Every structure is written in structure tokens, then in C-alpha cells.
Amino acid sequence: MASTIINKNTVPIFLAMIEESLRQIPSTDFQELKSSAKPPLCCLAVLEGVGILLNPAKQQWEWTDDKNLMSGSKHEFLQRLFDFNKDNINNKQLERLKSILDRTDCQPADIAKISRLCSELCIWLGAILEYSNQRQISN
Predict the structure, then answer these.
(1) Contact criterion met (CB below 8 Å) for 84 and 53
(2) HSE (CB half, 13 Å, CA atoms) of 137?
(3) Structural domain for 41, as ranges
(4) pLDDT exceeding 70 applies to what percent of the chain?
(5) What is the DSSP letter of 113?
(6) What are the tens digits of pLDDT across the range 36-60?
(7) DSSP-assigned states of every residue in 39-75
(8) What sequence ranges are listed for the domain Dynein heavy chain coiled coil stalk (predicted)?
């Protein structure tokens, strides 16, 4: 997904742009997702991708786990993403993340019709995956 639009030299710039885009999402979008009784499967998949990165030991993800990831404010949640050490992603995490992003229902443009937050998170996940792929090529 992201590899078609970014390369090794532009990945950090792309990540910074995505982070800024995430900051611009209204807190109401964040609260709306958190308060949802049962979000769409594509949103659950994206949040599982975030969880795979932030809590790699966890094997099964459910909506309650996603809600726990989003506990606190939008700012706190985003800060956890931005502070995430993208240089320490293992191959198992990458495989799990790739399997989510390869799903036909996990395309940012389609997700944007449902949730801007999840769409931007999906783009962020794609950029993290591309960053890791480029890093492996460089090493």
C-alpha cells in the first residue's frame, strides 16, 4: 500500500505528515469511536494493527482491548503512537500487521467513509510497515 507512494528517503517526512493529520482529527471523532458499542470490522482491524505494535505479546484482540488502548484522551493515545519505537518492530509484528493491511476492507479511502480516525491510523500503520521494510533493506 504505502510502498507505492513513498520510498526510503521520504518515509520520515510521510510519517511526520500523517502524525500532523492525526493531530488535526477532532476529539469528537475519537470519542465517537471509543463510545461505539460495536465498530465496523475495518475499524476493529485497524485498531488491532495499532495494538500489535503497542502490545506485541497479546495474540487475540477484541473491542475491549481496543478501548483500553484508547483509554484517556485523544492526545494521550496519539502520544503513545508518536512515542512508539518504530526501530524495534519484530518480524512477527510485521507479518501480523501486513496481513491486516492486505485485507480488502482495510483500505484507507474506504475506511474514511466510516471513520476518519481509523483511516488516518490505517495510513500510519502502512507508513510504519514501509519504514520497517525500508529499514530491513538498508541493514
Answers:
(1) yes
(2) 10
(3) 2-138
(4) 92
(5) T
(6) 999 999 999 999 999 999 998 888 8
(7) --HHHHHHHHHHHHHH-TT-----HHHHHHHT-S-HH
(8) 17-131
